[in-house]
Structures are given as C-alpha cells and as structure tokens.
Amino acid sequence: MSAMLSVSQSAEILSISSARVRKLVSEGSLDGVKIGRSWALQEASVYDRLSKKPGAGRPARTTDSAPVDKQVPAHDLHSLYLECNQAFQFEPSLQAIEEAETQEEAGFYMAVADYFLQHKQRELIAQGAY
Length: 130
Fold this sequence. Notes:
Radius of gyration: 17 Å
Strand content: 5-15%
Number of helices: 6
Mean pLDDT: 81
Order of helices and strands: EHHEEHHHH
Structural class: mainly alpha
Number of strands: 3
Largest sheet: 3 strands, antiparallel
C-alpha cells in the first residue's frame, strides 16, 4: 500500500499552505481520503504533483491539434511492457523524477511505478498476505 502523508507534511513537501493542499484534494488534483476530521494523502500523488512543478495562476491554453491515431505493433507494445516491468520493480527515486527532462516524463515514471506497485499489492492480497 502506498505511504500516506498528512496535510501538513504534504504542504511542506509542496511548499504551499495546508489550506491549498485541502483545496487540491477537494478539486481532485491530489489523491487523499478523509479519516475522521483529517485528510491522508497518497505520497505518490504528492510527489507526482511536485514533479510537475505547477506554476502560479491558470494553465496556458494549448492549441495543439488532436494527435494522429497510429497503430503500434503488438510485439512492440509487449516489449515495452516487459521493459517497464523490469525497470519499475521499485519506485523511481526522487532524484530520477527531479532529473526527468519534462513534467510529462516524471509523471510517466510515477504512473508506471504506481501501476506495477498496485499489481503486486493485488497479488499479495490474493495470496492472503494482507
């Protein structure tokens, strides 16, 4: 299971106020659950937001056209899956996320690592380890 952080811990990591963290949770920008009167945020969600380094103000509008629908051969996709499975057996370090060339790349690392972590958790639950 992914580690959980308090609102104040998350605020410190993100260098924002606790009120802003609660607002981001209510907007769905951060993943969290309410436990009694307090929020617990998923650590991966907090670090994913940190890796994206959002700036102040509203995001700029993009005028990109729709992506071209290209078919990738199934063999290439299977190879990609195997490579990702091997590379993301452990969550990427914060250093790897910070050194990503783009926010999209850092988000990709977190999303793929999270996918494989969730898969392992489901296997352990099925085996009765939890």
